[in-house]
């Protein structure tokens, strides 16, 4: 059950309207990382969720995102309003005047309509929570960028509030994911193939100005079998660890630490 209270979650005061900035704000109203997308994603995930605690979390945050939609919509509306009757403002985006009368509509800053394709809903809570952590991070960075395009104090204040709440939600989603207590690389019920899951393919090779092959925890260490240039068996192995042919020599093209490259799985065989 939804109930609307005639009070914004956070005060919106706009000193000097800026229609161009109002148009940019629509990115967080009807855009891919905007508040409507967040509200719909979390609420629908919540409807699907069978974990009582996480369901409650999803419905709490999904509902808060609707309040954010109202705040950012009110803010955008305040900036766009002059477009209705000031000819010079219309240049920012005639679509907003023609289709929306100088008000907000559910499209992004480029005029593309909102779409449910923005939503990431899998019905698997541990997967959905990962999508939500990423969604909050994306929304945070969009708000941060928007902060750089206005000097209006009231606008900066409201945007700072909205940006801060993205971090709050990211924290709750991460803690909820942690509370499930599974290994972070364990998803679903079917285990991955042992012979391929820890193999790293160095599929992008280069030297000098074209770039070099980098090593780091994502591809080196006891957890990994490093395979150099599997699609180009004649490539000269790169020296790693300061030694000609070094560490690459035992993991060169066509070989892993304990054998040849496993054949990809072919369904039905
Ligand atoms: Fe939000």
* Cα separation of the termini: 51 Å
Please report which band the strand proportion falls in: under 5%, 5-15%, 15-25%, 25-35%, 35-45% or over 45%: under 5%
What's the CATH architecture name of the largest domain?
Up-down Bundle
Radius of gyration: 25 Å
Low-confidence stretches: 239-260, 264-269
CATH topology of the largest domain, anyone?
Ferritin
Average pLDDT, rounded to a whole number, is: 87
Q: What does the overall shape look like? A: globular
What does it look like?
The chain has 269 residues and is mostly helical. Helices cover 46% and strands 4% of the residues. The chain is built from ten helices and four strands. The longest helix has 29 residues, at 52-80. The protein is globular. The relative contact order is 0.12. The structure holds fe (ii) ion. Residues 35, 38, 65, 68, 139, 162, 165-166 line the site of fe (ii) ion.
């Amino acid at each position: 059950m939804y109930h609307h209270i005639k009070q914004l979650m956070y005060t919106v005061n706009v000193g000097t309207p800026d229609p161009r900035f109002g148009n940019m704000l629509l990115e967080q109203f009807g855009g891919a990382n905007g508040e409507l997308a967040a509200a719909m994603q979390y609420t629908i995930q919540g409807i699907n969720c069978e974990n009582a605690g996480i369901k409650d979390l999803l419905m709490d945050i999904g509902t808060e995102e609707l309040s954010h939609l109202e705040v950012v919509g009110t803010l955008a509306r305040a900036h766009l309003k002059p477009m209705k009757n000031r000819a010079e403002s219309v240049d920012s985006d005639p679509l907003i005047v023609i289709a929306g009368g100088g008000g907000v509509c559910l499209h992004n800053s480029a005029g593309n309509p909102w779409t449910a394709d923005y939503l990431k809903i899998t019905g698997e809570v541990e997967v959905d929570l990962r999508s939500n952590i990423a969604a909050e991070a994306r929304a945070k960075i969009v708000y941060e960028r928007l902060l750089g395009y206005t000097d209006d104090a009231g606008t900066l204040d409201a945007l700072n509030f909205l940006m801060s709440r993205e971090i709050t939600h990211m924290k709750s989603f991460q803690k909820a994911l942690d509370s499930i207590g599974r290994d972070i690389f364990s998803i679903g019920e079917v285990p991955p193939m042992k012979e391929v899951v820890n193999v790293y393919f160095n599929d992008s090779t280069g030297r000098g100005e074209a770039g070099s092959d980098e090593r780091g925890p994502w591809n080196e260490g006891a957890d990994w079998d490093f395979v150099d240039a599997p699609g180009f068996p004649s490539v000269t192995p790169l020296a790693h660890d300061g030694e000609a042919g070094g560490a690459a020599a035992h993991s060169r093209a066509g070989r892993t630490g304990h054998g040849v490259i496993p054949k990809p799985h072919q369904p039905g065989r």
